[in-house]
Amino acid sequence: MRLRTRMSTTAAVGALLLLTGCGAADMTKQASPFANAQGARTVTLSVQSWVGAQANVAVAQYLLEHKLGYRVDTVQVDEVPAWDALSQGRVDALLEDWGHPEQEQRYVRDKKTIVNGGELGVTGHIGWYVPTYFAKQHPDVTDWKNLDKYASQLRTAESGGKGQLMDGSPSYVTNDKALVNNLDLNYQVVFAGSEAAQITQIKQFAKEEKPFLTYWYAPQWLFKKVPMTEVKLPAYKEGCDADPAKVACAYPHTPLQKYLNADFAESGGKAARFLKDFNWTTEDQNEVSLLIADQKLSPEEAAKKWVDGHESTWRAWLS
Is the pLDDT of residue 9 over 90? Predict the structure, then answer.
C-alpha cells in the first residue's frame, strides 16, 4: 500500500528533520562516499523526515557506533528517491518503509539490487482524526457519514466555505482528495506544508479546544499530547485503493518494513546482520520520538537514554 509519501545524520540534521515533513528535498547527493565500500566499517543509513523514522536511525546508529565499532553516516532522502539511492549503493539501509509496491517490484523482484530486511516491528496506519474532546461532545462525528453535519464547525479561512480536512505536505501519498470527492463530502483538503507545520496547527487547535479534522497516522508521539479519535471510513478491502482516482475506502494497517542494498546485505558483516535483527515496538519508537520531539533531546541523547533502559531488547540484535 502506498502510504506516507509518493516519493513516515548527525544531531544537526536531526534538528532539521523535526522542522520538515515527509516531503523534504531529495538529498541523495549527500550520500556517504563510504556507502557500500568494500571492507569499510562505515554504514550509511537513509533518514526519512518524520520523527519516528529518526528514532529508528538514532538507536541503530548509537548501537552500531558504541557496541559494534562502526562509523555511521546518515542521509536525508525522500521515500521514493531513497529506493533509488539504496539500489545504487548510495545508502546501505532504509529502516522504515510504509509500502511502495512499484519500487519493490522494480528493485527487489526484477533488478534484485535491494533485499527485504525484515519487519521493523511497528505497524503503520493512516486515517482521519478529530480531537477526542470533540468526539466526546459529538460521538457521531466518528462516522464519515455524519461529517457533513459538522462541516460548518470545521470550516476555516483556507477551506473556501467548506469544512477543512488538514493534510501535511502535498508530496505525501494521500488519497484524501479522492476520498472527499468519491464520498461526496462538503470538505476541502488543505495542506499544512509539512509534518512540523501540521503538528503546530494541531497543538494550536487543541490549546483553544477548537474542533478540527486531520489526516494523521500512527505510530506518532503527538497522540500522547493531543488525544485524537479516528473517524471510521468505509472499510479497507484488498485492492480498493488500486485506482487512486476511485479510492473510497479507509487506509490499511501496514507492517513497516526495512530494506537493505543487496550487496551490503551479503557483505555487510555484523552491521548487516544487526540491521536485519533490529526489531522493536510502537511503544519503543514513541518513547524515543517523545524524547527528541517533546523533550528536545538530541537524537544521540535520546538513543542513549533508551539504550540504557532497554538492554534486554537490543542485546538480541547484536548476536
Answer: no
